[in-house]
Amino acid sequence: MILTAGCTTACFSHVYARPDSAAESDTLTLAMVGDIMMGTTYPDTLLPYKDGAFLFRDAKSVLKRADLAMGNLEGPLCDGGKSTKKDTLNNYAFRTPTSFAPLLRDAGFDFLSMANNHANDFGEEGIESTEQALRSQGIKYAGVKGHFEAAVIKRKGLRIGICAFGHNPYTLRHTDQATVKRVVSALRNQADIIVVSFHGGAEGRTQSRLPYGKEEFFKENRGSLREFAHYCIDLGADVVYGHGPHVVRCVEVYKGRFIAYSLGNFCTPYGISLKGISGQAPIVEIKINEKGQFLNGRIHSLVQRRGIGPRWDKNKGAARQMKMLSDMDVPASSAMVDARGNIRIKRK
Prior knowledge:
The chain is 18% helix and 28% strand. With 348 residues, the chain is of the alpha/beta class. The protein starts with 15 loop residues before the first strand and ends with a strand.
């Protein structure tokens, strides 16, 4: 069902269950990553070796063992069309071939957010092409206004509802509290577990700290993300994870529920800076119980290599960075991160 103007309830993609779903269990494993843009043919062609066959080589083991693997698809999957970006020197536009869609399935992804500032790079044609490419791989998606607002995926006898918010006019906006309330509240009637994805925050290597209050980038409101994440959990969400700043940020456990404020870049071999901390590409793997309560987790540290993709980082840079940021920015969190990336509930 497609959302139309005037629709007052959230519209959901059909429920999807893996044919090989694991046996009933009271523990779910979720894997989350940040931005994915596997290569582009616009304005120049910059595609990885052997059409990306090895992009997710190191990440697959973690993504595929999770009950649910999620990320942010930073740009459309399409083979033509006209760019909506007028000045390609100052406004990046991405266009990944639809032939790359199977790479996402083979890597283990179950859900991808489209609520970001590149989903509309090739307009409605690009959005519809992306949706078709993802559907062909059995990957669920959400976040573009007028399209699907949420997906429900069954795992281990539980219904997991996932919605996505962004900061652009064509997305479901996280700055619109009424929309957030409507979508998350509707999911409460559709799902046992609720996961919220968001694209927000200022961008760049200087933006790794989580501020209080509203963030702006090029005079655009990028949200008050502490307030947004806590609001979603107060509404009934169980997991909230973000992306957008192109660098990692802190993680928090609030009221027993997990929040990752930015997972940075994950697989962006071209078109996005990978210098220094911008190259950190973590996978955050968490375990929750059947009520959505956080049990434990781990930050798996990978680092991106230009034209190649995310590779294991023996120095655990992402884990160390996220530990430092969590200690500084969310000291009241119910969980702690250690130098190896383990996330555990603090002892009282």
